[in-house]
Write a structure and sequence with these properties.
Elements (H helix, E strand, L loop, with lengths): L17 E5 L12 H16 L3 E7 L9 E4 L23 H12 L5 E4 L4 H6 L7 E4 L7 H13 L4 E3 L2 H4 L9 E2 L19 E4 L8 H11 L3 E4 L5 H10 L5 E3 L5 H8 L4 E4 L9 H8 L4 E4 L14 E4 L4 H8 L7 H11 L2 H18 L5
Helix pairs in contact: 1-12, 6-10, 9-11
Bound molecules: 7,8-dihydrobiopterin.
């Protein structure tokens, strides 16, 4: 259960504000490389505009965001942070898109009341004191790398409330957990339609990359002899090929990286969603997408899913990395009421609920921003 941010209360912003969103540096918006952050950026943008604020987005070339103006910046993408080991120093490629995006921010910052950084990269945090417009950061993953922990911690300490996270579980991976503001997430629930009577298949959603543990879901679907529908962007080709070779008989099919409407049209007819992350998932937007369709969630008891799945009521939390545990939970899916899943999404993960938490966060960032001089 995600508590509201007690320190922030329920304040809603006093007047319309001008926001500058700076996107992740690992891929264009709409490519799927940005994972759950793309959905968070789109939903936050939509809800702020619906509440009378104005918004401009800066993102890598090729980015598309329906209904929102995007300034596309060219340059070399950043290496995904989750592929780095802890002690690796910060790297900046020649003609870095990250550097180019923040150079653009430097030039236009005075037109905006608040800059929101969505990139999990060293530069935006390091530049925060150099900029004249306040910057808030939505940190989208847990602790991965020493240099990142160091720079995020400095900003979180020097600029109170400026570091937003998805969940407490994610915050607790950092030494400065108490300085993080847990925001949860939210969806435009109208885009997800409830399905009372599912077909027999299970589903798995997400970037196909080692930290997401797809092999466990395939192993469980084979052991339970239940078809598995896989959707998401193949971020690591050799990893996916390895799974196909290791489980030639498993009843899975890969449906590609689908847009929200196509994806939910398949997910809603599934018996359950399998979440098999081997890392501390910061949140798990795919979990609330499934719940919004009335689909129970089976997830390893690790990270964000702990604060999302109501065990035995809207899904099952399973011993981390236990395929047997997944199979047992699959065999208990019929005990879950699909209406309870949709109701949880409406209670906790609507855009309105996210909007209130997000506006309260921005209000606090601006209120506590250290005065210059
Ligand atoms: N890695 N270096 C880097 N920068 C990002 O912005 C980034 C990332 N890895 C993953 C990622 N963003 C998003 O896909 C996740 O935060 C969801």
């Amino acid at each position: 259960m995600l508590g509201s941010c007690s320190v922030l209360g329920k304040s809603v912003l006093q007047k319309p504000l001008k926001f500058l969103f700076v996107s992740t540096s690992v891929g264009a918006l709409g490519s799927g490389d940005g994972g759950g952050v793309e959905l968070t950026l789109l939903n936050t943008a939509r809800l702020l505009v619906s509440r009378g604020h104005s918004l401009h987005v800066v993102a890598p070339k090729g980015s598309r965001l329906d209904g929102i103006t995007v300034t596309e910046i060219d340059g070399v993408l950043q290496v995904p942070a989750q592929t780095l080991s802890r002690a690796v120093p910060v790297t900046m490629p020649e003609n870095s898109v990250l550097g180019n995006m923040w150079n653009y921010v430097r030039q236009v910052q005075r037109r905006f009341d608040l800059i929101i950084n969505f990139a999990y990269d060293w530069l935006p945090f390091y530049l925060t004191p150099f900029l004249t417009t306040p910057v808030a950061h939505l940190v989208s993953m847990g602790s991965l790398n020493d240099a990142m922990d160091d720079v995020i911690g400095r900003v979180a300490t020097q600029y109170p409330h400026s570091v937003g996270v998805y969940t407490r579980a994610q915050a607790q991976t950092f030494a400065f957990a108490d300085a993080c503001v847990p925001l949860g997430s939210g969806l435009d629930l109208a885009r997800y339609s409830f399905c009372e009577t599912p077909d027999s298949a299970l589903c798995w959603l997400g970037r196909i990359s080692p930290e997401k543990g797809l092999e466990d879901a395939v192993a469980a679907s084979q052991a339970a002899n239940i078809p598995l529908k896989i959707m998401g962007q193949i971020q690591n080709e050799p990893y996916f090929r390895q799974i196909q070779q290791a489980f030639p008989e498993a009843p899975f099919e890969y449906l590609g990286f689908l847009n929200t409407d196509q994806m939910q049209n398949i997910v809603r007819r599934c018996r359950g969603l399998l979440v098999t992350s081997h890392w501390v998932e910061a949140f798990g937007n795919v979990l609330i997408e499934a719940l919004a369709c009335g689909v129970p969630v089976i997830a390893y008891q690790r990270g964000g899913p702990i604060e999302i799945v109501r065990n035995g009521e809207t899904g099952w939390l399973v011993q981390p990395d236990s395929v047997d545990g997944l199979v047992t939970a699959i065999q208990s899916l019929d005990q879950i009421d699909r209406n309870a899943c949709r109701q949880q999404a409406e209670q906790e993960f609507s855009l309105e609920a996210l909007g209130d938490r997000t506006e309260a966060w921005f209000d606090a960032v601006l209120k506590f921003w250290p005065r210059v001089g």
